[in-house]
Amino acid sequence: MWQLVVVIGWILRILGLLVCAVAWWWLTSQAHQKMPEDSSQAFQASLPLLAAQGALIVAAILLAKPIAGWIGDLTANLFMPGARNDGPQPMYSIPEGRMAAEDYAGALEAYAELAAAHPSEIVPHLRMMEIWLRVYRDPEAARQIQASALETIKGRRNREKFEVASKVIMDEEEAG
After folding, report:
1. Which segments of 80-155 does DSSP mark as H helices, in order?
2. CA 111 from centre of chain
3. What does the domain layout of the chain look like in residue ranges?
4. 169, 126 in Cβ contact below 8 A?
5. pTM above 0.70, yes or no
6. Which of 51, 81, 109, 139 has its CA 20 to 30 A from that of 173?
7. Which numeric CATH code is attached to 93-175?
8. How would residue 82 be classed by pLDDT, with cut points 50, 70 and 90?
């Protein structure tokens, strides 16, 4: 319903702009036709020209709100991000802290919890693969993580990104 109201508003705004443009053109042409040769009737001849400028002001008022809204939306997006940041963000500090303390089993567990809590995130799965490959030197466990991640990651684009990144990780380990 609100979309219909917006569309009707735009149609009325465009019609108003067309009326202002036609009025401006007509009034300006009338002012130029009635220009006197002597200055005694200059004020009377300039009235259509003043009215034409009034039509331009009305057109500016009709355009002001949508232009101001558009500029406002652009600047608001700088300071207030959209829906992609509405939910809680994953906390990577816990598993990274465990990695720094060389508690790899704890890091695997923390990354698994993150992957379960945030199914659209690919980083926890990649980090678990890296731990299995680089710390435990177990490529089979990394492949199992890769296979399960492809089933659990939400979103086609996220799965595609994960496939590319996990292939790079697996290829690095095979080459190294």
Report:
1. 93-100, 104-117, 123-130, 139-152
2. 29
3. 2-84, 93-175
4. yes
5. no
6. 109
7. 1.25.40
8. low
